[in-house]
Specification:
There is one protein chain. With about 160 residues, the chain is an all-alpha fold. Helix content is about 70%, strand content about 0%. Helix 3 packs antiparallel against helix 4, helix 4 runs antiparallel to helix 5 and helix 5 runs antiparallel to helix 6. It is elongated and about 60 Å long.
Length: about 160
């Protein structure tokens, strides 16, 4: 059943799903920066907040499928440890964006341009997301998780 939910072997769903939060959160940062350069930034501030929410929903969907992928990796291997760090970073980033969403909504209305605190949190979150994305790429391209047959994944699947 988990293989059905995680996607066909060789073409897992997790890498497809992560495009939603990545795209939404990058666009949110662009809107945040844009709120400093346009004459009427309220629409960009509000759009940024919506993009953060869309990214969180997408991240939670990607996390559920990613967890299924992680559970298919043998424990005690380099690939599993890399997957744990990848997951932990992603959950931390998602938590930061949830906090960022509520931080932005704590005021009496849209603050224009976006306050420096939420802007900084978004920037740091995207940097951490980039590190996590690097690890996700390592899982797919170096260790072949859910892409290559287990017999070709010896380096990542050997206990280390």
């Amino acid at each position: 059943m988990s293989a059905l939910l995680a996607g066909p072997y060789g073409h897992p769903f997790h890498p497809i799903l992560v495009t939603v939060p990545i795209g939404a959160w990058v666009a949110s940062l662009v809107f945040d920066i844009g709120s400093y350069v346009v004459a009427t930034p309220a629409g960009l501030e509000q759009g940024s907040r919506w993009l953060i929410a869309i990214g969180v929903v997408g991240a939670l969907a990607a996390a559920m499928i990613g967890f299924l992928d992680l559970m298919a990796i043998p424990g005690g291997t380099r690939a599993f440890r890399t997957g744990l760090v990848h997951m932990t970073l992603n959950l931390g980033v998602t938590g930061a964006y949830i906090g960022n969403f509520f931080w932005r909504g704590a005021g009496a209305g849209p603050v224009v341009p976006v306050e420096i605190g939420p802007l900084t949190l978004s920037t740091i979150s995207l940097v951490v997301l980039g590190v996590s994305g690097y690890l996700g790429g390592k899982l797919a391209y170096r260790y072949g998780v859910r892409v290559a047959e287990e017999t070709t994944q010896a380096e990542g699947y050997e206990p280390g």
